[in-house]
Design a protein that fits this description.
- Four copies of one chain form a homotetramer.
- By secondary structure, the first copy, chain A, is an alpha+beta fold.
- Chain A is globular.
- Chain A has 17 helices and 14 strands.
- The termini of chain A are far apart.
- Chains B and C meet through strand 10, strand 11, helix 10, helix 11 and helix 12 of B and strand 10, strand 11, helix 10, helix 11 and helix 12 of C.
């Protein structure tokens, strides 16, 4: 397993195809908007080195028998699935979003679907993928999952778009590989990932065959451009954004301008029947991951809510306890879905375990449609000061500083600067650009509520309930 | 294990202390209001005899090594806890409420708390209880849990009530046993149970010591009077209430008029410090059971909703699918709590496994505060006919029958009588006296939403979240 | 204006075409299931005779200048609309549903649409209707609105049904009138109304022209059969259902077997373009009425919730106050919609005022999707005793009565029999057959939530908001 | 009435006591964070000059008979109240928050309570206030309401705080006036208002008499320091924040360091019994104002939601229409409360009309507890691009611009730059620092949900509902 400094060095060695706000930037250190993303991923290299939580954060490769980072592991049991969910909550309670989940979710989905594809189409994707996984594990790589196409007119299928490039597709098949063109959006962590794992974003029809493609490319491959944007504040004042100035993801809109991919890195190419299954398998793994990270976000919101209540002197109020209990309930409803999806996970043909689709979707759906209300509860307990607290320049001003200290006091036994810090945290988590990203990612990350609702409806065994109802009604069997 | 007919015979042999609507009735067959309750319990003697689901419905006694009904089993593993939840959903998808859960929940709670009490107070309750469990298993008994006192003025503690009997208490301690007086309410299944397992209903203070009492008595013991009430319809027409005329619980308000209990059946007596723990342990087991039965009720509601949509010709509508998906989500959010509470169950000193308190409470809380909305969804899909469908006499009338058949038709390929049957089911499940019981039991069974909210708040590790928030805010460690 | 006894006498004089449970019954007194409905309507003859609330309960006819019952009035101002809403809440706080609203809602809708139809088609419906209204006012009649067809397969339009009678239609046009066949469902109050006002239930297409028909018939006209069903309990014990044994509506499924209607009573016949507008106008008036009656139902639920909290000794608890405040909020959100719909009512071509469609729909939608939750809150505050309270026979038994009185006591200063009465009320209102009708009527009365959502969406001035958003975004004007 | 340029000139003439981020800034133009606030207020000087909406935006002074800006008017009728609500929605659909409401809300509250205080205490505040109102109207002034104290430990009353200045109080009474010290928070628009209207923030007890003080001071009075903070973006790129770069409020934490107030500007001083009533009266007026501004915010969100759906090609989807209908419902539920509170407004002793307290509170409560969900709906319809859209520098880059234009296309007939603009609007309104302010102001502006719930509970006529329930239960009258 790599160390933190090896990870940073590996980034430095990459080619320069990352842009932000019209400038090409060097990987990774130059921009304060990117550093908070790298800070997060670095933890996934640091924590497994310590003795605590080793069982959770590392695994034994079923391919090599080596001790590996769990973020490179193919799940071989229900316990593996449960470990992933719990590892995710652990990391995210520190960082909000650990980012490295998506790479391993993509590899697991590929390990399920390449095996099925080979069985149905006589292809040999699974073997290729297995070789790639070995390489990925041996080098302890960070993978980004590039799934969502830019989509153009969403009421049209890929081949119906006015510009064929609005979904990524194969433009040429050569003896040594394929050439692809298009763009993938919302590629979290891409500017500091080693590899992009490209997956189709939806089910396809025969006419969409060129769009049914999955593969891996180095994130600095020829023809790739990453147009990036961070949720971190641009402000210099650490205090103003105590959390997001340290930890925040960076997203890329990634443009594939005739990128060449050698065959050994191609895992689906033209088998349009499998595109939807691959998208669904990835979504299931990734929604399962959300059952770990979203409760962790609630943990932070709940902790902030409890803390700010103390700093307001209201923590004993009935309504405060009620709101905290509501946050607890929300966190655990989502987390139980992750646990249950693990417990009911099923071994697939490849030996890989897939979490229960319904439970994973229910968890993400509930998380994504409750986050805004959670933020409302935190703001409710905090009060208007969240957005009114004087700026850093006022607080540190010789003229204003002392008088502001006087008037921003809370309960007499608590330090004013701590109270200010606490309010800054609430602002950072609920009323900032960073909070905006948290909210939108909560709704759309891993798929929208409509997508999840549809997945639940389609996969649910409704007929067994209809049978039960018919029996209850006394219908003839 | 007993057979169904042995169970019925054992009821016949009991003394006559069951009253309904001012009349003493014989156990069990005479009253159509009681029979639907017995029908349910009978299934727990029938189904384990068949080969299907044997692993789920039976267990191996850790005391005797015998094959026993799982409803008499002390949970010795997380798998046992999971089996109980899944067995409960299986039975309840047929019956709505299986009733026999409460007895085994009480015995498990006692097995945890008697052991702790012995450790703290040097008593010998655990040994007594173990003997009693052997007797209970050997005779495959049905146990009722008599917990909720009538409570009088709920703002007062037991010893503060104007009438000391408003909570059940010990009135005399004798060499051979104790004498108790009081009344316990909401004793589901009591008129066709063999044993009443009596538990304290809340935490106690030193002045309440006489109220800190737990014990077992035969349901026909001297001094016991069961004033009963069934949710089944009194109507003769089976068709009018296709479900509740077959399956419906019966509740008892049970009066203990100086009932004698020999010491070997006393499991707590005066150790007021443990009363709250015992109440909480039972509540945890029982809320865990609700994570099996409430999803089963939703299964029936969802099945009825899908069925009635077909009979209305609207099953393809977007809003119908959306509402069905909402019911699916509700069912599984509750069930995942049951699975997670099992998975995170902990072995107690006695070797008994206790489900995770927070998860069990979150599941019951969510179930109890969503059931009414589920009924709204079913009624929404069904339409006004639910409460307007002509009565049996009209439908079977020579004059009106044919014309009603004409006008109650739905889609042309579906039989009118089936459509009528389907609407009767919706009425029975959502708009009847039986539905009233379902709703109230959903809110209050196993404890009220406030009780669950309080349990969650008290048991939750809030401080670890505050610590995470402080770290997120950049506080000095 | 008629007196109560004149109203009862007028019912006695009608022909016998009312059936219940397979028996033809005499209007009106014989059946305890019908009497609670007549009790309600009787109040609308009694209260206007007293001096209190005369301005609210009566009006001056714009046709004759006579003092008339407001339930026969055509609204000529915004104040008239407001008065109708407030009159409705006043009556319904006593009775739950006043029933007589639908007749006047139908006449007002007809007065708007007949005028428009005449203007577009050169017909002379408005004059006929005006004559009919004079007759209706002079005789102080009770009108039922018969709108909802039985509909068969709801995915099909009227002319597409396998049986053409599944929507009511004209089968013959004669010199002196028309003949109609079909059935109308959910005809509240029909068995004790004088007149049925028949309206189309939806928009129509050219092929549906025979279904585009509106008219008035006496409720005992030749060829009419009313198959009825009441929500009142069949039980003899008044105490068991203290409310619904006095006040409860009766519904009819009304069969039109070649009923002849003279032309002077026909108000639409073949102008299919207007069918949807007429249905919408009636729905608007009727949803406006719901903004009066539903808050009144909440008033009763809220009062019961407060009362039962007192009888439980918990009325000072924070969560109790919070739940009561939630009920207050729900009641007034609905009522404000009624007030606002009145304030923003518009005069139509005929001089009749129509309430604002959006506000009326928003009010009914909110009411219909919150009622079940209101019932949950009342049950939550009451506790399990709602459905467990021993039956009348037990309470009045010499053996059991005294001991039940002892154990059903609440706070020491409150009478036990009053506490029992209070719980019976909660059962009657929330956990009974009658409560089932309340719930279903709450969802579907005046149209389903989907129908209201659609009405809001279609009528709302969305484009003005899009314009505002475009301006906000800085688009070129 | 002043013109826009007269308003700006009047600001220029004021003393320099406004600080932002540690710098003293000149009123008003220098800081881009303040200008968006002034832009808003300027509209209230421009729009009344045009002919459109003159009746709504101006009024006739009951004191002088002059045509005045309605933002300086004392409401003399229900129509006046309705006009204020509708004027507020009109302005806020353009600006989000019009800011000038609070000044007139404060003057109206003072006109009610000073009259009552004089009647109870023989004081002469009402006359003073009337003179002040004439001055305010004649000069067409902008008033800020400075109400919320910084409060310190919220579990303590004013006189119990460790620092007596944590609530503003009188430190000296002189022959010519009073001296006050303390700080008021959340003073919207203060840096570009002419006058601060200072009110007590809560009910008081005898020991708090020095805190029971109300008065008016010029915003640049000696001893006043305004520490300000704007919600506007600091970014230079207009496009990035198309709305908030033009329109956004500025808030002040205002420090009163021994400020002298002459008696003719003092409107309450020591009559602690009236402090709570004054706070409540202001809250009622201000929550009534929210029933105009919050629906306007929803108008903008709804318009943005519809627009972004078009730019995504999904506007015909059922779920999109459903979500838009939900936004419509929310907007109008709040607005109906404003209309109903006006319609049920009551004349007070002074001749001033006060809106109905319950309706005003219900409206604000509903608005404040639904806004976050509204934002969720908008984000749901928009998709992840809201927070991922490349930054301005990328879009305008010669290298990246063209390729980004290609890949950010939506439906083929819509311009890409318009689509980008539309997404920027959604980001600005829902996922930015400005959105954070909108959310917190939605929850806490005019008081928190708990404050509103309490106000509803306290003012509601619960006993009449209990009486109705007792009658329904058949209690003896």
């Amino acid at each position: 397993m790599k160390t933190r400094s090896e990870y940073l060095a590996s980034l430095q060695a990459m080619k320069h195809n990352v842009w932000m706000n019209g400038q090409r930037i060097l990987r990774p250190w130059e921009d304060p908007q990117i550093k908070p993303g790298i800070n997060i991923v670095s933890l996934t290299y640091e924590w497994p080195q310590s003795t605590e939580h080793q069982d959770l954060l590392t695994a034994t490769s079923h391919l090599t028998g080596e001790r590996i980072n769990r973020f490179t592991h193919i799940h071989r049991s229900r316990q593996d699935l449960q470990n992933k969910v719990e590892m995710t909550r652990l990391y995210c309670r520190e960082t909000g979003c650990i980012q490295r989940c998506m790479g391993i979710d993509a590899l697991n989905a590929l390990s399920v679907i390449t095996h099925q594809t080979d069985a149905m189409f006589g292809t040999s994707y699974f073997g290729r993928l297995t070789d790639y996984v070995k390489f990925f594990q041996a080098n302890d790589l960070v993978g980004n999952a590039a799934m969502t196409d830019v989509k153009g007119d969403r009421s049209l299928r890929p081949h119906e778009q006015s510009d064929p490039d609005l979904y990524l597709h194969v433009t040429e098949k050569r003896a040594d590989g394929i050439v692809v063109r298009g763009a993938k959006a919302h590629n979290t962590a891409a500017p500091y990932a080693h590899e992009l794992l490209v997956l189709p974003t939806r089910d396809m029809r025969p006419e969409d065959a060129d769009y049914a493609v999955a593969f891996a490319v180095p994130a600095d491959a020829e023809g790739l451009t990453l147009v990036c944007r961070g949720a971190a504040p641009s402000s210099k004042h650490e205090m103003a954004f105590p959390f997001s100035s340290r930890y925040a993801t960076v997203e890329s809109l990634t443009i594939f301008d005739n990128v060449f991919v050698p065959w050994e890195r191609v895992f689906l190419c033209g088998e349009w029947q499998m595109a939807g299954y691959l998208a669904e398998a990835f979504a299931t793994y990734h929604r399962h991951s959300y059952c770990g990270c979203k409760p962790a976000v609630t943990d932070l919101l709940m902790g902030a809510a409890a803390l700010v209540s103390r700093y307001n002197g209201i923590e004993k109020s009935h309504h405060v306890r009620q709101k905290l209990a509501e946050l607890m309930t929300t966190a655990e409803l989502v987390h139980t879905c992750g646990l249950a999806a693990s417990l009911k996970g099923q071994e697939q043909g490849s030996g890989t375990y897939l979490p229960d689709l319904v439970y994973a979707n229910v968890g993400k759906y509930y998380a994504g449609t409750n986050l805004h209300h959670e933020m409302e509860l935190v703001q409710d307990l905090a009060g208007g000061l969240v957005v009114i607290l004087p700026l850093e320049g006022d607080l540190t001003s010789e003229t204003l500083g002392p008088v502001l200290s006087k008037y921003l006091a809370g309960p007499a036994d608590l330090a004013v600067e701590d109270r200010i810090r606490c309010f800054r945290l609430v602002e950072d988590l609920t009323a900032s650009k960073f909070a905006g990203l948290l909210m939108v990612a909560g709704v759309h990350g891993g798929g929208s509520p409509e997508a999840e609702r549809l997945a639940i409806f389609r996969s649910y065994d409704l007929e067994s309930r209809v049978t039960a109802a018919r029996r209850a009604a006394g219908f003839e069997p």
